[in-house]
Design a protein that fits this description.
- This is Glycinamide ribonucleotide synthetase.
- The chain is an alpha+beta fold.
- 29% of the residues lie in helices and 25% in strands.
- The chain has two domains: 7-96, 2-Layer Sandwich (D-amino Acid Aminotransferase, Chain A, domain 1), CATH 3.30.470; 105-201, Alpha-Beta Complex (Glycinamide Ribonucleotide Synthetase, Chain A, domain 4).
- The protein has helices at 17-37, 70-78, 81-90, 171-184, 198-201, and strands at residues 7-10, 47-53, 56-63, 105-113, 138-142, 145-147, 154-156, 160-168, 190-191.
- The protein is globular, with a radius of gyration of 19 Å.
- The mean pLDDT is 95.
Length: 202
């Protein structure tokens, strides 16, 4: 069985200026033009899932939402302006806005329940998050967690449970910080990949 995304990093070296321009010219803008032609313009997040082969973008899917876990890495590099951009989009003012990406790198590692994407148990206790200092360079995003009513403990309640995300001056630094955070999480029933970012770093 296939998993959902188990990690992400930004920026992705495969998305060169040429590949980005090709994706816009060949995929995104024609799609937007066709929606407008049909009288069904779209206002919101349009996530374009691409595969890049031989320097050419190929469309896999569209989603009317942010990608997961890509969103976590992107939000870390966008910061508070993400809210301004979404509000401008909702109000039809997006053309007036300028996106200012942080000149650094972000990497997300997904911690999943043991057994995912097959059958997995819910309710296992997750400890150690209080030992992770969260700031503009370190953040743990909750995707499948809950609080146990009896004692208030944090427990797993899904397949992909945590998105452990860090920023760094280099992708290697972001990766090392993210994995150092993962190692502080005390969750025996949790698993994660140790190779996120390997392609960009090899």
């Amino acid at each position: 069985p296939n998993t959902g995304g188990m990690g992400a990093y930004s920026p992705a070296p495969v998305m060169t200026d040429a590949v980005t321009q090709a994706a816009l010219d060949q995929i995104v803008r024609p799609c937007m033009a066709e929606m407008a032609r049909r009288g069904t313009p779209y206002q919101g997040v349009l996530y374009t899932g691409l595969m890049i082969k031989d320097g050419q973008p190929r469309l896999v899917e569209y989603n009317a939402r942010f990608g997961d876990p890509e969103c976590q890495a992107l939000m870390m590099r966008l910061g508070a302006q993400a809210l301004d951009l979404m509000q401008a989009c909702a109000e039809g003012r997006l053309a007036e806005m300028r996106v200012n990406w942080a000149e650094d790198h972000a990497l997300t590692v997904v911690m999943a329940a043991r057994g995912y994407p097959g059958s997995y148990d819910k309710g296992s206790v997750i400890d150690g998050l209080a030992d992770i200092a969260e700031d503009s360079s370190h953040m743990v995003f909750h995707a499948g967690t809950d609080r146990r009513e009896a004692d208030g403990k944090l427990v797993a309640n899904g397949g992909r449970v945590l998105g452990v995300t860090a920023r760094g001056d280099t992708l290697e630094q972001a990766r090392d910080r993210a994995y150092a955070m993962c190692d502080k999480v005390r969750w025996p029933d949790g698993v994660f990949r140790r190779d996120i970012g390997w392609r960009a770093l090899s």
